Amino acid sequence: MSQAFDPDAKPVLHEKWGWFVALGVVMIMGGSIAFGNVLAATVASVYSVGIVMLLGGMMHLMQALRVKKWESAFYWSFSGSCYTSAGIFAFLDPLLASATITALMAIALIVAGAFRIWVAFRLKPLDGWGWIALGGLVTLVAGLVIAAGWPVNSLWILGLLLALDLVMQGLALIVFGVFAKG
């Protein structure tokens, strides 16, 4: 059975620890900027999703042209058109797109949280089932809070989550770099 981490790589990590710390600092700075203007960070998030949707749509459409004699070519074309349209929509009206993404995120969190709670109670005789239930409850409550504030919070929620992610990843990289130095 192979290990996930190659112990021979430890000297390389030790040698490059400063790069992890530097990247962490840059990510925290980016997160701080995002915290300073969560609306702009939300728009940037929507544009990022838009770019991915556009690229995915164009690749689907190219694939549809490559398999045009195949019976499923219509589905490739339809899927590519939907992706491309969603990407264009994100650029034409990023605020409406953020409202749509926020609503979908709230629904996904509510469903995921409820499902985790249900799974936890099915695991009830086992040790640790309560932690799964607690995690599900936190996810469910997050979804309900987002849904309760929708659509107003769609102006800032995606930007806030981006800012939080950047800061948390930055902190994690700094700590990893410091431990790699040790």
TrEMBL record:
Keyword Chaperone listed: no
Parts of the chain that traverse the membrane: 17-35, 41-61, 73-92, 98-119, 131-150, 156-180
Claim: Transmembrane is one of the keywords in the record: yes
Domain of life: Bacteria
Entry keyword set: Membrane, Transmembrane, Transmembrane helix
GO CC annotations, alphabetized: plasma membrane
Stored Pfam families: DUF308
PANTHER family in UniProt: PROTEIN HDED (PTHR34989:SF1)
Protein name (Swiss-Prot/TrEMBL): HdeD protein
Source organism of this protein record: Pararhizobium polonicum
